[in-house]
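Protein 1 of 2
SEQ + STRUCT:
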Amino acid sequence: NILSLQLEKPLGLILEEASDASNSGVIVTQVNEGGSAYNSPSASSLPNSKIVKVMDVDVSSMGFDDVMDVIVDAPSPLVVEFALSASAAAAAGVETQEEAAPKYKVGTTVSIKVEQPEGNKAPITLEAKVGDNLRKTLLSNKDIELYRGLKKKLGNCGGGGQCGYCAVELIDNGDGVWGERSEYEDMKIGNKAGTEGHRLACMNNIVGPATIKTL
């Protein structure tokens, strides 16, 4: 029961961290007047919903501070996905769908093999956890050069999904576990020949093992 809305800042959403230990993430407790969410036809369905994605970044298992960081860093307007209860989804006209269980649970350790354009550099294998942001994971290793050249080093947006400079090529996506590239990534990366496997590292959380190549 996922509702996707494109909202301008300020959103006007009052959020709090889920109190149930078995249900991590952040929920909407109130929709305030003056925010773009209040003017949405689905405003009445949002209280008690859970925010699951912000601009294609999976925030379903993040804490309050991390979710707020993603929202603050995102451009305006931004796309937010909410998980609704069955009754709220029916009221909002959202079709009920069975969600497939993820192949790898959040927190599972997986291997990310990183290849770099320089032929004299051996591939680097990182141990990362499902749910970690791919960009942050790559930047945490000083031997991996995600931003190549002064233009990318000095002009990148810092993970806000705007510049496109953190694009990497997904060579092996672990038997399809990474799924399809998002429409937003299609728009930012473009459709030139040879870019079909490119992803924005900042917009992807690790969902399983993979082999990627920095550009």
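Protein 2 of 2
SEQ + STRUCT:
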Amino acid sequence: MSQGRGSASRAAAVALVLIYLLAQAEYARAATYTVGGSSGWTFNMVNWPKGKSFRAGDILIFKYDPTTHNVVALDKGGYNNCRTPGTAKVYNSGNDRIKLAKGPNFFICNFPGHCESAMKIAVNAA
């Protein structure tokens, strides 16, 4: 007995629902962290990640006054030297949500003197 078009449509709909549910399950497992806690993104942040376990897909929320700070996602060299390479992504909303990639993730504030005053974090996401 051959299957009609309705069977194929139902199978496609079920597949789409399963894909959606899997995506939601992955999102639900992601943790959300406010960088700096109630103090927000500010100076002397270098030690903030210590004692926390991060996973790829976790969300970091950076809260700050955008007239005095920003967030720059950059590479290790830029992080170590407090320099913003052309490939860096600059955020400046004051309420940035950044999804962690697997492996090392580096963030600084590139306002003059801020990175040098430890307004930077390095996060390793498993």
